[in-house]
Design a protein that fits this description.
With about 900 residues, this protein is an alpha+beta fold. It contains 25 helices and 40 strands.
Length: about 900
């Protein structure tokens, strides 16, 4: 028997869970009718849901309808949990949209309607609570037609001539068929519903079971089973955990079948290896409420939970199923997670990632500069629920700082971005055309590069790198959006190009283009609906104008009025409380996210956030070239002079090569760097005590085959590559815990492990001749002033209280990198990333170990040769003496 996936959606308090309960009861799946207010609803399985009386997590239940069964998916109605609801839409065959007859069409109802259109889901409507006073069936039907669509037609009553005429009006072919036959067959009506031309509307009261049978009968008559391919396919829509902590992947099979113990993977052509996962379906669970049954095989159309998949993510397609669309509803506020005293933030970050797996829209992030965890939330209710989840799952009492607006950035005009990455034995160059897209279009990627210039495989890799990470803008560091990015030129090297080279060149090309462009800051806007007494309209209009709102003409109905329009989220955050105050509780404000638009106070926001794009070392805009066997850095505004490839785009056209930013729109802002070499006595002592005063010199590249040379123009004279020593900064504890032999020593004696590492670094320095600075964390030692000591031929630094090794290395790298070649050896775990740039290169712990082992081998070989030579000389002397 086939299965249809039918979702129940509604604005909060419309009676959605009550309708789900009634459908299960009338289908014979429940012996007793539960109620939300009695905290015994079948689909409210979580204690939080029963306490609050709202749906927080999507749930499923099975019920028989006609020849096939239905997987009923109950979704959250509260706007704070919209992301959970939207993830379900990608697997639905049909939806039932519940509307409160007492409240009518709410703001969130229109958002749900738009989402159902975006995901192309056919819709049945159930107008609930028609037993309450003031519910007007004809008025509600008229509102449905005017606000949602003319295809909204009343079903469940007498199917006479007037009814069939109303159905036929939704489609020309239906009208022709009706005029010929006087009636429309159920199969034809079902096709109209499937094509979203007809939206059957049922009226009743779920609590009193009125109209529920008619709705179930309508779903049986006017739906049809989709055609599924024989090849296996599945769409993942949710990640959860059972009471025992087992990770569950919820999916819908969209082709063929899935058997238990089957091997699953998300592998796709061109997908980076780091994003690929493989796993075995250890269990197939068919849930109904909190109970489940195990299945040996799940067929197309069925929804199940799979145990045993560790790397799966919502929205992924498996087998023949394509990736799902990115979500359209996103949080617009970001909060700082305030951990309890003594809680390790790195450990907390790793554990909280479990919650991000279940709700990817949390967008958990680690701010290395502020050293804090940040999370994005929809609102206060979600915040309270998240606090409760963290307490129950991890035992932490966390709080959240004041929420800040999540901004976006885009550009005003097309610009070319150039990225070149060519340290020794590496090579890649990328040219991208960045163009502003339509508002709300997000990011679009494409290629217009000839395969004669750059092989197709490299082009695919560049597009993969563009898709794998959203780049920050240069005004505030906010993610860029509404951009079309097209690969227009590039070059690889037969011997020296590796995949990671194009990642570096691609990111630098995007960043260089953004630095060259006029950037525009975008902020989220609400669509609002304000219902209040007519006497308060004047006050409301003045308030909304002062809050930079765009207001439609007010509508009045007797003593009440409705004001609609749009306004920036930042200006409306506290307005609901103000409305309740000046209307004495009679006003009601509802807001739904409209999208992003140019910021109403861009310069003020940019200055307040204080982001400096030039000092964002994690996202460099500069390029790396090579000359005389050494890499050197070229500033982003001079890259065009040194590039190796001509893209064919105009080089000085303001519409392409980025005019200067408009007046009043600063590209970079923020205080000067606060940890300079002169201000850091410990760091300065390393150099001045040993090498004398440091002389500042501008970093400029040596020779490179530039566009100026090819055109025969006068070539700029660059400064030489610095000839001073190369510096190697080593994050001691990262390396110590990353190398197995040192880790074993550290388990018994940490001092011995540190000594072994110091000896290894001394040998390394003696052979390579670079300046080695070995840095150990000591930031947890109360009152520790820090220390800098000389150990044989290297420097050993113990950081001061409240200063970590990565923060110390970041400052040192920034200053030394202005004048010297710098490398940093560190492990590359997510919470220990060190910000590098300005020509500095990161050396992974594994690569550094191989380098040290090579040096140790060469030292041993040199000693062996020396010993043989000494022994040979001694033997020769002995023979000569014996001969005499």
């Amino acid at each position: 028997m086939g299965k249809l996936a039918v979702g129940i959606l509604a604005h909060v308090d419309a009676g959605k869970t009550t309708l789900s309960e009634a459908m299960l009861y009338r289908s014979g799946c429940l012996k007793k009718l539960g109620r939300v207010d009695h905290r015994d609803a079948f689909l409210d399985t979580d204690a939080l849901e029963r306490e609050r009386g709202i749906t927080i997590f999507s749930k499923q239940a099975e019920l028989p309808v006609g020849e096939w069964g239905i997987t009923l998916l109950d979704t959250p109605g509260h706007v704070d949990f919209s992301s959970e609801m939207e993830r379900v839409l990608g697997i639905l065959d049909y939806a039932v949209l519940v509307i409160s007859g007492a409240d009518g069409i709410q703001g969130h109802t229109r958002t749900l309607w738009d989402l159902l259109a975006r995901y192309r889901v056919p819709v049945f409507l159930f107008v609930n609570k028609m037993d309450l006073p003031g519910s007007d069936r004809e008025g509600l039907l008229s509102a449905l037609k005017s606000q949602l669509g003319e295809g909204c037609t009343a079903f469940g009553g007498e199917e006479g001539e007037a009814f069939w005429e109303e159905v036929a009006l939704c489609d020309e072919q239906a009208m022709t068929r009706y005029l010929e036959d006087g009636v429309l067959p159920d199969g034809f009506v079902a096709s109209l519903v499937a094509q979203r031309r007809l939206f059957p509307c049922y009226f009743g009261s779920a609590l009193r079971l009125d109209g529920v049978d008619a709705l179930l009968k309508g779903i049986e008559r006017f739906t049809r089973m989709p055609d599924y391919p024989e090849t296996f396919g599945a769409r993942i829509y949710k990640i959860g955990r059972d009471p025992g902590g087992a990770r569950l992947t919820f999916l819908k099979v969209t082709g063929g079948s899935l058997r238990v113990k089957a091997l699953l993977t998300n592998r796709r052509e061109g997908m980076p290896e780091g994003a690929v996962w493989e796993g075995k379906a250890d269990q197939l669970r068919i849930y109904s409420g909190s109970r489940y049954r195990l299945a040996e095989e799940v067929f197309a159309g069925e929804v199940c939970a799979v145990a045993g998949l560790d790397g799966s993510r919502p929205g992924e397609g498996l087998g023949c199923e394509a990736m799902g669309e990115p979500p359209s509803l996103e949080p617009v506020l970001t909060y700082r997670v305030e951990l309890p005293e003594g809680c390790d933030p790195h450990l907390a970050f790793r554990k909280l990632r479990q919650l991000e797996e279940e709700d990817p829209q949390l967008r958990l992030s680690w701010d290395g500069q502020l050293r804090e965890i940040q999370v994005r939330l929809m609102g206060e209710v979600q915040m309270e629920v998240l606090q409760r989840l963290i307490r129950e799952r991890f035992g932490w009492e966390v709080s959240f700082g004041t929420g800040s607006i999540v901004y976006r950035e885009t550009i005003a005009a097309p610009v070319e971005g150039i990225g070149h990455f060519e340290p020794l034995r590496h090579y890649a160059e990328v040219h991208l055309l960045l163009e502003p897209g339509e508002p709300g279009s997000g990011l679009e990627f494409g290629t217009a590069c000839s395969e004669e210039m750059l092989d197709r495989n490299w082009q695919r890799l560049i597009l993969t790198h563009l898709e794998e990470q959203v780049q920050p803008g240069v005004l505030t560091g906010s993610p860029v959006t509404d951009l079309r990015i097209t690969l227009v030129a590039g070059r690889a090297h037969e011997k020296h190009t590796e995949g990671g080279d194009f990642r570096q060149a691609t990111y630098r090309a995007v960043r260089q283009g953004l630095m060259s462009a006029e950037s525009i800051l975008l902020e989220p806007w609400y669509r609002f609906r304000l219902e209040l007494p007519a006497g308060s309209v004047g006050r409301a209009l003045n308030d909304l104008q002062r809050r930079h709102g765009q207001v439609d003409p007010p509508e009045t109905a007797g003593a009440d009025a409705v004001v609609t329009g749009s306004a920036p989220v930042a200006c409306m955050r506290d307005y609901a409380v103000e409305v309740a105050s000046y209307t004495r509780g009679q006003g009601r404000l509802s807001c739904t996210l409209l999208g992003y638009a140019p910021c109403h106070n861009q310069q003020e926001v940019v200055e307040a956030l204080g982001y400096d794009s030039e000092r964002d070392l994690e996202h460099p805009a500069d390029s790396v070239f090579c000359a005389h066997g050494a890499g050197f850095t070229v500033r982003w505004d001079r890259v065009r002079e040194y590039m190796h490839v001509e893209s064919g785009l105009p080089s000085r056209n303001p519409g392409v090569q980025g005019a200067e930013p408009a007046a009043g729109v600063p590209r970079r802002a923020g205080p000067a760097y606060g940890g300079s070499l002169e201000q850091d006595k410990e760091l300065q002592a390393i150099f001045e005590r040993t090498y004398g005063p440091i002389k500042r010199r501008a970093m400029a590249p040596q020779s490179a085959l530039s566009r100026v040379e090819r055109e025969g123009a006068e070539k700029p004279v660059p400064a030489p590559v610095p000839s001073g020593p190369e510096y190697l900064l080593v994050d001691g504890y990262n390396i110590l815990h990353a190398w197995d032999e040192l880790k074993e020593i550290a388990r018994d004696n940490l001092d011995a492990a540190r000594g072994s590492l110091m000896d290894l670094m001394s040998n390394y320095q003696g052979y390579c001749g670079c300046e080695v600075i070995l840095v150990f964390d000591a930031y947890k030692v109360p009152g520790n002033p820090g220390s800098v000591t000389r150990y044989h031929n290297i420097h050993v630094v113990y950081t001061k209280e409240a200063e970590t090794a990565d923060a110390y290395i970041e400052k040192a790298t920034y200053e030394i990198g202005k004048n010297h070649r710098v490398r940093v050896a560190t492990s590359d775990s997510a919470e220990q990333l060190i910000i590098l740039g300005h020509g500095a290169l990161r050396l992974s712990a594994r690569a550094f170990r191989e380098e040290v082992e090579l040096v140790e081998g060469r030292i041993s070989a040199a000693l062996a040769r020396s010993n043989r030579r000494v022994k040979s000389d001694a033997m020769r002397d002995a023979f000569e003496k014996a001969g005499r």
